[in-house]
Amino acid sequence: MTQKSSDLFRDRESAAKLLDVIKGYDGPHISIMEVCGTHTVAIARMGLRDLLPSGVTLLSGPGCPVCVTPIDSFDEAIWLAREKGVILATYGDALRVPGTRTNLLNAKAEGADVSPVYSATDALALARKNPSKEVVFLGLGFETTSPTVAFAVEAAKKEGLGNFSVLSAHKALMPAVGALLLDPAVKIGAFLCPGHASMVLGANVYVPVAEKYKIPCVVAGFEPLDVLVGIIMILRQAKEGVAKMENGYPRVVTAEGNKAALAVLEKVFTLADAGWRGLGVIPMSGYELREEYAAFDARRKFLAGVEIDSKEPAGCRCADVLRGIIPPAYCPLFGKACTPEKPVGACMVSSEGACGAHYRYRGI
């Protein structure tokens, strides 16, 4: 565990060599949480948890955008599609997430106009093609996707496209990181930080976390060797008794991030208190449209004064899975009442959900 970072990168061609370094770890026990759905899937696909030494535990955190979106956001989208007759556009993963009574896919089968899209730009194109219809984009995700939605809203405003609006469920990553560290039930010794969101935010956003809470924060990519290198960098810090931010993904992530993306995000959105599945309401953790863009805010446009009764499914422990309190298999519904074919909770639906990844790659 004494190699320099440059040595670790030269070892990328040898996964076996990197695994040997991890298996040789003899420092204090450490629990490492990844807060990225792509990391969750990569780790499950690799079977990495089964290869770790007894002193190292991997926890899956709230890194799946679809999973952390509270059930009331999906209920709002379903209501808009059914009751307001809008074209409801959103990502494919979101269509099967259960609302309180149904999901968007079932609403579509019953006649609602629900369109899966790859991006907010696709939803904008729908609005241009259907000038007589209202198009609402259910926007999910962290800083990886929210700047693209900001760009679409800015474009709609410039074009005077009055039939386009956004139902924003976008979340800010860093307030959730802080909330996890303040939760006495969550035991985190280090963060394996996401490559995608960090590409926008910049690696330096983790410096205050490492300094304040005295835990290692390492940005990592998503290829198997990237993940292994990131874990080794964390273990080295743990053994040496230090806690700092390290960037293990320098080919993509810079210290300052994508300033252009951050600028358009700040121009169009502002931070507000927001609900998270599993974490409750976190202050200043959600992106909502600024007053200047109120005409493109679906909540202000269609949902003012509307009351929708939302309720999480009985028995589902997605909340505890998202906080790293339990692994997916500890949920009593996992693999029984809740499967990818018939999901009860959002963590089983999404391609980046911890339950779905566990089911596909590790079994029941």
Walk me through what this model shows.
Helix 3 (37-46) links the parallel strand 1 (30-34) and strand 2 (56-60). This protein has helices at residues 5-10, 15-23, 37-46, 65-68, 71-84, 104-109, 120-129, 146-159, 173-182, 195-201, 207-213, 224-240, 259-268, 298-302, 318-322, 346-349, 354-362, and strands at 30-34, 56-60, 87-90, 114-116, 135-141, 164-170, 190-193, 217-219, 245-247, 269-276, 280-289. Helix 3 (37-46) runs parallel beside helix 17 and helix 8 packs across helix 13 (259-268). The chain has 364 residues and is an alpha/beta fold. Strands 2-1-7-8-9 form a 5-stranded parallel beta sheet.
Computed over alpha carbons, the radius of gyration is 21 Å
Biggest sheet character: 5 strands, parallel
Q: How big a fraction of the residues is strand?
A: 15-25%
Order of helices and strands: HHEHEHHEHEHEHEHEHHEHEHEEHHHH
Distance N to C terminus: 34 Å
Low-confidence runs: none
* Number of domains as seen in the coordinates: 2
Secondary structure layout plus pairing:
Blueprint: H1 5-10, H2 15-23, E1 30-34, H3 37-46, E2 56-60, H4 65-68, H5 71-84, E3 87-90, H6 104-109, E4 114-116, H7 120-129, E5 135-141, H8 146-159, E6 164-170, H9 173-182, E7 190-193, H10 195-201, H11 207-213, E8 217-219, H12 224-240, E9 245-247, H13 259-268, E10 269-276, E11 280-289, H14 298-302, H15 318-322, H16 346-349, H17 354-362
Parallel strand pairs: 1-2, 1-7, 3-4, 3-5, 5-6, 7-8, 8-9
Antiparallel strand pairs: 10-11
